[in-house]
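pasting input
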Amino acid sequence: MAKSLGPVKRKFSPWTDPTAEPFIRFENVTKRFGDFTAVNNLTLDIYEREFFSLLGPSGCGKTTLMRMLAGFEEPTEGRILLQGKDISGVPPYRRPTNMMFQSYALFPHMTVEKNIAFGLQQDNLPKADIAKRVQEMLKLVKLEQFAKRKPAQLSGGQRQRVALARSLAKRPKVLLLDEPLGALDKKLREETQFELMDIQHTLGLTFLIVTHDQEEAMTVSDRIAVMDKGEIMQVATPAEIYEAPNSRYVADFIGDINILEGTVRHREDAAGLPGVLRIDSDGLQVAVDTGSQAVADDKVAFAIRPEKVRISLDKPAETAVNALYGEVWDIGYLGDFSVFLVRMEDGRIVRAAQANVSRLVDRPITFGDMVWLTWSRDAGIVLTR
Amino acid sequence: MKSSRFDATVLTLGFAFLYIPIVILVIYSFNASKLVTVWGGFSLNWYRTMWSNQGLMDAAWVTLRVGVLSATIGTVLGTLAALSLTRYQRFYGRTLFSGMIYAPLVMPEVITGLSMLLLFVALNVDRGFWTVTIAHTTFTMCYVAIVVQSRLMTFDRSLEEAALDLGCPPVKTFFKITLPLIFPAVLAGWMLAFTLSLDDLVIASFNTGPGATTLPIKIYSQVRLGVTPEINAICTILIGLVTIGVILASLTTKRTEMRRIRDEHDAARAEP
């Protein structure tokens, strides 16, 4: 069944434009609950029409950050600016932000229609305008025939749509989404992710989403802020976060990655290739083409994604650098991919993923096989943090 | 099967112990004889004379007014107390206050009654309708607070946050969202308060004055002079009222439950 994909997305990157005014700015924001510091001296800019994700494990402060923007919590220190204006002290019911709650928080004693109309009624709009907007919203989330139902008479996916419609009805300047898809099953979640992107694009709103699901963040966002213990570890586009994480934490948190700890042997400057680092990791020699500023004797980590590791039964031409020899210890078959867990002589496990391009008849590499793992000089990254 | 016969016997005896006195009271309210212990044939006579017993009717009217008024004030105060105890988690002396709300439940009524009396005497207030009402309000509001508090414990605060977020100021949010959702608990609290006020003898007798005799006090004082079947008649009516109330309450809960099951059924069918 053909499905409308909405307007074609254009390149969008206001964060690279130094003259662009941030839409939302967290300025040295700290939030403490008693002795616990939920958010620690955090500064962050979010631009208009951006789909921005706060990603991190539970307790990293991402929800607190969002609740401060909604007005449910006040920062202990620092300021929050919306379109250049400090919004501290403005109560939640006077802020131009709307939130979609993790539990959906639908009013159980009101019908779908009344739930969506609730926010509009607070603005004392004429009845006809409210009815019109409610119809638009119902159409947007494809729930026209459920208008008269109570939330208890809806399925989980439908409730999620009502919650979305209700939070969008007032056309907020910023829509805050707190783990919006957490309660849906995988397939529905993926569909809804694309719908969310469509809606964001069509309405031209700024979306701020809180999630612990890195796949979700990668799919929907223009930019992601990875958080840990109340601090931002990295803010970048999904591709940058994935391909160029700035720390072991981010590399490990996003997707699968092999991290090999080691020491920088030397830098091949003018003589060799510019910017190539030689790293010694327990006998393994790694050469990386990198922008890293690490110098000789620095303790670093070499990180490489499993899909960038080639796996082969045949001995490669060059075995001195960027080559590992080991035994296939386990195989994870994921359908589209197979992940090989290869055990080195010293017991380290390195993962290599291979796309299953042809339908599997006989798998040439199997348990117990001795295999070579190789990679190119630009496949991995050097992490100093 | 032996044990089941044993169970049946125990159950029968237990219920008999509970209900035979009440059944006897009801039966004798239809007694034609003036003697409470001798059956003289069926009659509705005592129900007729009861209506013309001005003292008894006045007492019933006072009780009803005290009950409605004290239950209503008690419900408002009790709900407010429950709200502050569940909502403001970190104020000074919270543990003390939440413990203190239970005190009147376990306090002997004599002590509650006496302390109220001493207060009114100290304040030099004439005892009568209002003192009984105030006394009843104080002890029934604790019951309301506890009933409402247990509902608020499971109340999803994000519903209120959602309303605030959508532009609804706090007070309006309370009336539009919170109150409608906790209303069944508030109503249950009111009914409990009303019933407690209706059948209270001890506290009322400490705090009443001339012209404000409640029904329990009236019945008690008449019994001391000798039981007339009129008492049986009015008690039968009271039992009838309470029974109807209980049945209505349980029917409403059952209907809500049925609707919930039907809703869930619909929701399951609506699954995409």
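fyi Confidence is low (pLDDT under 50) at residues 1-6 of chain A.
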